[in-house]
Specification:
The chain is of the alpha/beta class and 485 residues long. The protein folds into 2 domains: 1-288 and 424-484, FAD/NAD(P)-binding domain (3-Layer(bba) Sandwich); 292-419, Flavocytochrome C3, Chain A, domain 1, CATH 3.90.700.10. Helices cover 29% and strands 19% of the residues. The protein is built from 14 helices and 20 strands. The longest helix has 18 residues, at 467-484. The radius of gyration is 24 Å and the shape is elongated. The protein starts with 6 loop residues before the first strand and ends with a helix.
Amino acid sequence: MTDVWPVPARSIVRWDETADVVVVGYGIAGVSAAVEAGRAGADVLVLERTGGWGGAASLAGGFIYLGGGTAIQQVCGFEDSAENMAAYLCAAMGPGADETRIADYCAGSVAHFEWLVGCGVRFKPSFYAEPGWEPPRDDGLMYTGGENAHPFNEVAVPAPRGHVPQMDNKRTGERGGGYMLMKPLVDTATALGVRASYNMRVRNLIVAADGRVVGVRARQFGKTVAMRARRGVVLASGSFAYNDSMVTRYAPRLAGRPAASIEEHDGVAIRMAQAVGADLAHMDATEVAFFADPQLLVRGILINGRGQRYVAEDTYPGRIGQLTLYHQDDKAYLVIDADAHEQAMAARSATPELLRPPTWVCESVADLEQEIGLPIGTLQATVAAYNQAAEAGGDTVLHKKAQWLKPIGTPVGAIDLRGSTGGFTLGGLSTTLHSQVLHVSGEPIPGLFAAGRATSGLAAWGYARGVSLGDGSFYGRRAGRRAAA
């Protein structure tokens, strides 16, 4: 950890720049911190590692997990409340989820939506009801966490909370809702006088004799520079998903798997804060993407290496990914008949590259079972039980919704989905509800704040799409306000 060891303030001969608040990272958490610090009257300097603003957020689908009765929810005909939203999140965010933080986030969710709109972020008041990773067009609301699927539809009244900024002619993975989330926020920050310095590789915190963080040291174009923060430093430079040694140490099941992130998420903010005694939480927790189109998944059955179903196919794909990687040894096959596969291929999809052809096609389930190499009789028993449930109109085992229950006919095929998972890390720095970084003693580290995926936020061992941009922006704002104070 010597490369991130803190630098004593007394050793700084000359400060290259000075601001009231220095923000490290110009993604969703960083820009939100910058806007709020700027509105509080602080002089704000953002240091960004790359050549421009955006971070992982600008390349994402742009979902922000919001609820409690936002204007979009109401226009689209959905009732919701902070309490209902919190009940879902406490169940869905997994073991160890911070119920106090969840309640805090839900109570401020409607106001946060209005803050985004006030910063110029546009949301189209239309609901996309089909299964999918994101709407193929510019609809502003959809289910993104399996809220209407078992078991969550029995925990809380289902309500869609995936709010996605409106964008015309979007290109998934290149220019989508995330861009239209970031651009108005950056424009707002710029109008407030927020300064930005790019190609800055921040490596060390600068600490005064009394333990207060008073700046950062960075490298820019081969030159070492020191940036002074009169009031506070905000760390907002992302997760450790692209730090192989940290992933191997803390989240080894993701090691070697595709990282659903950007390479700048190398954990440096976490390591710098650790070097001054910061506490961590949920470092082993991960979100696991499942690289198959939901239009396919809902129309077939997912089986494991024993030929058994293990998850309701109409739930959130990230939940499927977690159950597949961690509980099924990353082995999954989608069994689907020809008619259902044809329907899926013809459906509107924002991710047509994930609409895969069958790996095997057979005239009978028994032949398919043999082709896959499953234990004799296992797949036949699974399909027979599923078809019986479909004919009866109720999946009493895994509770897949009736609208997707249809007996599997012939010819029948299977898509080999072994190794179809990737993901990103969810753990990070422990923070207060005001985004102060906590020391291992339990006390806040003076002058140090953090937000976004560098922290352990709402998610523990569960996830819903939009949570990262949601709590990153929400607690980024808190970080900016508190740092400016």
